[in-house]
Amino acid sequence: MIRRALLTVLLGLAACTGPVKLDNEQVSNRGAGKDNWWDALPRQAWSRYPRVAQSQDWFEVYRVAPGVLAIYEPGQFEEVISYLITGSERALLFDTGLGIGDMRALVDKLTPLPVTVVNSHSHYDHIGGNHAFDRVLAVDHAYTLERSGGLAHDRVAEAVGPGWIWKKTPPGFDAGQYRIEGYSASGILEDGMKIDLGVRVLEVLLTPGHAPDALCLFDAGNRLLFTGDTFYPAPLYTHLPGSDFEAYANSANRLAGYAGRVDWLMTAHNEPAVDPVYLGGLARAFEAIADGSASFVMTDGNREYPFEGFSIITP
Ligand SMILES: [Zn+2]
pLDDT digits over 15-32, tens only? Predict the structure, then answer.
């Protein structure tokens, strides 16, 4: 109860809009588990990894695999995770977060290597820091292009409103002005393309479904699959504008073939590394929804299908 009371105070401070209802009606359309989402923090999974010291309170940085730093933003509902993946010559930043903290300044502290940005997809919580980087590789898709123009305040204001943020935001951050800055892509990503970081090679797998431009990065040499929002251990979204159930099911089928080739799925929300057994589970889940054998509950007017360790939301 003490923790809850404290967090309520923090919520009020962060949002500066007065007390927040604990049933959190402000976060909608995001499946079960949205009420008091901050009660899940700190998540046990993170305690397995050494924390990397840095100066921005907004971020938490953990060494989650050799040459892989997870950059976690637990202060906002999405609990988004970006990854700094380093080779011997170059580094790749897989997603740039919410644009609340200064991702560029953080990355400059974490690596001396030249950094290329790749986004798992173009939702606001993955492209927030893109504008600060010189080299961004992007999918050649109308959706990506449109969102590279930036997202005005009215398109993202909800995400920094009451119920969405519990942690103190960085000095100078103004929720009333929050927007996603536009950026320019410096190169095109294609399916099967290999990005050589020196010693480490990442293969691009286009996996549309959650978003039209969703992709995963396959690190064969280190047996890692960076899944973005295509898989994480929480409600998965096929119901957002631009989402496509059929495409997602096809992508899940494709990824199931990678289960035996990786040791960890490096996901973009909540927890960094989960068992690849979920890839088979994801493909079977889509099949069960498609053939009508899966059961669902209604959340916020959508169908939410619960499975072991995750759920799938459909319109
Ligand atoms: Zn997303």
Answer: 444 444 455 566 666 666
44 φ, ψ (degrees, to nearest 5):
-55, -35
Residue 159 CA to ligand 1 centre (angstroms): 13
CA of 243 to the centre of ligand 1 (A): 9
Confidence of residue 166 (pLDDT cuts 50, 70, 90): confident
DSSP SS3 for 56: coil
How close is the Cα of 180 to the center of ligand 1, in Å?
A: 14
Query: What distances in angstroms separate CA 232 from CA 198, 247, 264, one per listed residue?
Result: 28, 17, 12
Rg (C-alpha) for the chain, rounded Å, is 19
Go through the domains of the chain in sequence order and give each one's CATH number: 2-314 (3.60.15.10)
Cβ-Cβ contacts under 8 Å for 251 (sequence gap 6 or more): 207, 208, 209, 214, 230
